[in-house]
Specification:
The complex is a heterodimer of chains A (about 325) and B (about 325). Chain A is α/β, with parallel strands linked by helices. In chain A, strands 6-7-8-3-9-10-12-11 form an 8-stranded mixed sheet, with helices on both faces. Chain A contains 11 helices and 12 strands. Chain A is globular and about 65 Å long. In chain A, helix 5 packs across helix 6 (about 155-170). Chain B folds into 2 domains: about 10-95 and about 175-325, Rossmann fold; about 105-170, no CATH class. The chains are: A alpha/beta (about 325), B alpha/beta (about 325). The interface between A and B is large, with 49 and 40 residues.
């Protein structure tokens, strides 16, 4: 099936007079129509910058897409004129931000915030847009009668439902969900994720789900990409990556997690810290922390090797075959 | 470092502890009749969602908030009502590690000043050389490189900042530490490093922990016993393994079922709770979870269910717990 989103060799930098933060470093990724892709990684891995790039919302002038192509339904996002991009943004590609407290305008009723999006993108008259706002609220589990309430009158979980309603109001083809439930308590997270996955199925939305929670990926995604220092270091189906994690960083992430099913006395954390994005190491970016790094890893950047759609960026897996496992 | 741990016996005993705050809308029952004890050298994990009163509990134990009523006995001494000079002495043996290492340390002080501050306040060491030696020893204990002695917090990442908070808490050789969400703001690989450190320190110095968190996999990993809180009350307490094997309270069951499991195809049967937590302001009598509970009966709303021992060491506050056996 054709990819709805296809990112090739994306490079994004944030620059100041003194230094350049290399946030995304040659990232390639594609998402099939109707699928959910989990983008996992720790703070500073470049997850959010990647999503912002897709919407052409990298903060200029500090931030800049240096090179690469982003194809959305075969169209090059970077070649679109600003007014064309405004039509795509919010209508065809929508984004859910992590923090529902700051994503909503505190001075405008939630109903109006949904209706505004619909009017802007679908040109509906006020009455129809308000009716649609009510319908959207009902869809995310909020009585339509609350559309005249302001954000502060809602709890965190309810606010995030409103944010989701705004994102889905124009029935976007692609949804970028950036840590949509991180700010929520676990029982509320369960409610919101259940509601989201039902709506995604109902509308056939393709989704990039950014999260640091491997459990959320396992339960909600079809594919998963592990990011480290602005690169995708491992990509595959959830079965492939969770059943047979290959990149030492992915393996390290799993080792860092306390296991709910087994008794374990010690965690096996990844030693060291994320590299400084203004001063990335030579060779493989993970090599300074990697328990299996060799001299080659410190000198030469690994390229992708692939086996049955399971992609790994690691010298241990050269030439399509595993080495040294 | 600290006194040898006397074999067994509670180091901390809490009886019917209450903390109310008067707010414009009425009286907020943050902690409402809490009783528990922690044996010397053990870890009690305290879990619950936002607003359940777990952080307030930690603060009341150290009298950072004055309790409204109830008793806290530490090492046989009644903490409530203790005069200021005695309290200060006591606080050197009861310390706290805070959630946010960005907000809980003074950004204008160096690492050495922050860690050495308790030593100065309590005049624990004589002279500059001894002071520096002690600070350096503490830094080594928590895994901070000596070259960071004169560094400022903003130069450090979250994990190292949390190590500063831990070193400062250890400076006075306490016996008991309240750890209030100490790893919640850290990435998983760093979180694992800090959890291992806390376990090592406990073993080395015979520390007793109250470990407050919303993260059930973390609490399972680190705790001997777990207390589950809901709206200011303790609703279930059991040895860790027992609680995870056989949760009795419907809220605990929902809470455990809501954790996303990082395994392919692991999606389990999830209990999705109705609605959200009710208000802690002037709560009505009766079980506070009843409005969300699928098993609630009229009698659940009549009066607070008592915390009863359902199995040896396993306490639950639910009138219907026996029906789930």
């Amino acid at each position: 099936m054709a990819a709805i989103l296809d990112i090739r060799d994306l490079v994004v930098h944030y620059s100041s007079d003194r230094e350049t933060v290399r946030a995304v470093n040659g990232l390639s990724l594609s998402l099939e129509r109707g699928k959910v892709l989990g983008l996992v990684g720790e703070t500073g891995a470049g997850k959010t910058t990647t999503a912002l790039s897709v919407l052409d919302m990298v903060q200029e002038p500090q931030g800049k897409i240096v090179s690469g192509t982003i194809l959305f339904e075969g169209r090059d996002i970077r070649a679109l004129r600003p007014e064309e991009m405004r039509e795509v943004r919010g209508k065809e590609i929508a984004m859910i931000f992590q923090d529902p407290m700051t994503a909503l305008n505190p001075l405008i009723t939630v109903g109006e915030q949904i209706a505004e999006t619909v009017r802007r993108h679908e040109g509906l008259p006020r009455e129809d847009s308000e009716r649609r706002a009510g319908e959207m609220l009902e869809l995310v589990g909020i009585p339509a009668s609350r559309s005249r309430d302001y954000p502060h009158q809602f709890s965190g979980g309810m606010k995030q439902r409103v944010v989701i309603a705004i994102a889905l109001a124009c029935n976007p083809k692609l949804l970028l969900a950036d840590e949509p439930t991180t700010a929520l308590d676990v029982t509320i997270q369960a409610q919101v994720l259940e509601m989201m996955s039902e709506l995604i199925k109902k509308f056939g939305t393709s989704v990039v789900m950014i999260t640091h929670d491997l459990g959320i990926v396992a339960e909600n995604c079809d594919h998963v990409a592990t990011m480290y220092a602005g690169e995708v270091v491992e990509y595959g189906t959830v079965d492939q990556v969770f059943g047979d994690p290959r990149h030492p960083y992915t393996i390290g992430l799993f080792g860092s997690l306390p296991n709910l099913d087994e008794e374990s006395d010690r965690l096996t954390p990844i030693p060291g810290l994320m590299p400084d994005p203004t001063d990335l190491p030579a060779g493989c970016f993970f090599s300074p922390r990697c328990p299996r790094a060799t001299e080659r890893c410190q000198a030469e950047r690994p390229s992708d090797s692939e086996e049955g759609g399971h992609r790994v960026k690691c010298h241990l897996f050269g030439g399509g075959k595993e080495e040294g496992r | 470092m600290s006194d040898p741990v006397p074999g067994g016996g509670p180091l901390l005993e809490v009886r019917d502890l209450k903390k109310y705050f008067d707010v414009p809308k009425g009286r907020l029952h943050a902690v409402d009749g809490l009783s528990f004890s922690i044996d010397a050298g053990k870890t009690l994990g305290m879990v619950g969602e936002s607003g359940c009163g777990k952080s307030t509990t930690g603060r009341v134990l150290l009298r950072l908030h004055e309790p409204s009523s109830g008793s806290v006995r530490f090492d046989g001494v009644e903490v409530t009502g203790l005069p200021p000079d005695r309290l200060k002495e006591l606080r050197s043996r009861m310390q706290m590690i805070f959630q946010d290492p960005y907000a809980s340390i003074n950004p204008r002080h160096t690492v050495a000043t922050i860690i050495g501050e308790p030593l100065r306040i309590f005049r624990k060491v004589k002279g500059g050389a001894e002071h520096e030696a002690k600070v350096r020893e503490l830094m080594e204990t928590v895994g901070l490189a000596g070259r960071l002695y004169d560094a400022y917090p903003h130069e450090l990442d979250g994990g190292r900042r949390q190590r500063i908070g831990i070193a400062r808490a250890l400076a006075l050789e306490p016996r008991f530490i309240v750890c209030d969400e100490p790893v919640s703001s850290l990435d998983v690989s760093i979180q694992a490093q800090i959890l291992n450190l806390l376990q090592d320190l406990q073993e080395r110095f015979g520390l007793t922990y109250l470990f407050i968190t919303h993260d059930l996999s973390v609490v399972k990993h680190i705790s001997d016993d777990i207390a589950v809180m809901y709206l200011g009350q303790l609703i279930e307490k059991a040895p860790t393994r027992e609680l995870f094997r056989k949760p009795l309270h419907p809220y605990t069951q929902a809470l455990l079922s809501a954790i996303p499991v990082p395994k392919a195809g692991a999606r389990k049967k999830r209990i999705i709770l109705r609605s959200e937590i009710s208000s802690p302001i002037d709560p009505k009598p009766g079980c506070r979870f009843a409005p969300r509970c699928e098993f609630a009966r009229p009698e659940c709303l009549e009066s607070d269910p008592p915390l009863a021992e359902a199995a040896p060491g396993h306490f639950v506050a639910c009138r219907r717990a026996a029906d789930f056996e």
